[in-house]
Amino acid sequence: MKKSLLFLVSLVFFAFNPGLFAQVTTEPAVPNASQKIKIIYDASKGTSGLKDCNCDVFIHIGAVTQGPASTTWSIVPFQWGTNDPKAKMTKVAGQANIYTYELTPDTFFDNPNGLTIYRLGMVFRNVDGTKEGKTSANGDFFVDLAQGFTVQITNPSGPSISLEEGENLTFKAQTSAPADISFELNGTEVKKASNVEVLEYAYTAASAGNYTLTAKAVQGSNTDTESVNIVVFGASEVAALPSGARLGINYISDTEVILALQAPGKKLAHVIGDFNDWKVLPEYQMKRTPDGEIFWLKLEGLTPKQEYIFQYLVDASIRIGDPYADKTSDPFNDQEIIQQNRHPGLKPYPTGKTEFQATYLQTAQDKYAWKNTSYTKPSPEKLVIYELLVRDFDEKRTYQAVIDRLDYLKDLGVNAIELMPVGEFEGNLSWGYNPSFFFAPDKYYGTKNDLKRLIDEAHGKGIMIILDMVLNHAFGQNPMVRLFNDGDYGAPTEDNPWFNRVAKHPFNVGYDFNHESKYTQAFVDSVNNYWLTEYKVDGFRFDLSKGFTQVNTGDNVGLWSQYDPSRVKIWKHIYDKIKANHPDAYVILEHLAANEEEKELADYGMMFWGNMNFDFREMAKGENKDFSWASHKNRNWNEPNLVAYMESHDEERVMWESLNFGKTSPINIKQLENAVNRNQLLTAFYFAVPGPKMIWQFGEFGYDVELNNDRLGIKPTRWNYLDQPQRQRLFKLYKEMIKLKKDHQAFNKPNKSSLSLSGAVKSIILEHPDMDVVLHGNFGLSNAGNVSLSFPRTGTWYNYFTGEEFNVSSTTVSFNLRPSEFVLFTSKKLPKPNPGIVQEDFVTSVPKEIIPAGEFKLYPNPAAQQLNVQLPEGMTAANYRIVDMSGRVMYSGESRGIDQILEFDLGNFKSGIYIFEAFDNRRVLHQRFIKD
Question: What residues does the Glycosyl hydrolase family 13 catalytic domain cover (predicted)?
Answer without folding.
Answer: 387-741
